[in-house]
Amino acid sequence: MVILATASPGFIATISMRYLHHRLWMRPVAVLGIAMIATSYVIAIPWRWISNALYYDRVEGNWQSEHLMDYIGGLLGSFYTLRCWTGLHFGIKYYQQLQEQTQATLKATAAHSRRS
User: Fold this and answer.
1) Residue 95 to residue 87: CA distance in whole angstroms
2) Long-range CB contacts (< 8 A, 24+ apart) of 84-92?
3) Over 34-45, what HEC string results?
4) Which of 29, 35, 104, 115 is the most interior residue, by most CB within 10 Å?
């Protein structure tokens, strides 16, 4: 139950990331790269906070936080997870775009061959 409860906010966060990525798709690569890194980090913070709070509340029982790090411990792991998701998302998107361009090229070549 804890795994589901901690994975759900991450899943919801990736939906918002996907929307942002689609809005930034045609921007220059530098803008896209900076936005991807910043978004991954900004979304990783609340995701890790929720995950840790749920874990300590459900698994540890009467746990009391002593430090901020109790809530954001593991933040780097969440950031890397979101970065991997972002890389996979853009890899798939680039592959789809390449396939569309290949199909368009093949259709244009076939049309040109029929006219000749």
Assistant:
1) 12
2) 85/14, 85/17, 86/17, 86/21, 86/36, 86/39, 86/40, 89/17, 89/18, 89/21, 90/21, 90/36
3) HHHHHHHHHHHH
4) 35
> What is d(CA 85, CA 88) in angstroms, rounded to the nearest whole number?
5
Q: CA geometry: angle at 77 spanning 58 and 71, to 5°?
A: 40
Statement: the pTM of the whole predicted model exceeds 0.85:
no
User: Is 46:72 a contact under the CB 8 Å cutoff?
Assistant: no
User: Do 75 and 48 touch, CB atoms closer than 8 A?
Assistant: yes
Give me the pLDDT at residue 103, please. Answer: 96
pLDDT class of 78 with cuts at 50, 70, 90: confident
Question: DSSP class of residue 56?
Answer: I
pLDDT for res 71 = 67
Q: What's the confidence (pLDDT) of residue 65? A: 67
Comparing CA positions, the residue from 74, 28, 24 lying closest to residue 49 is: 74
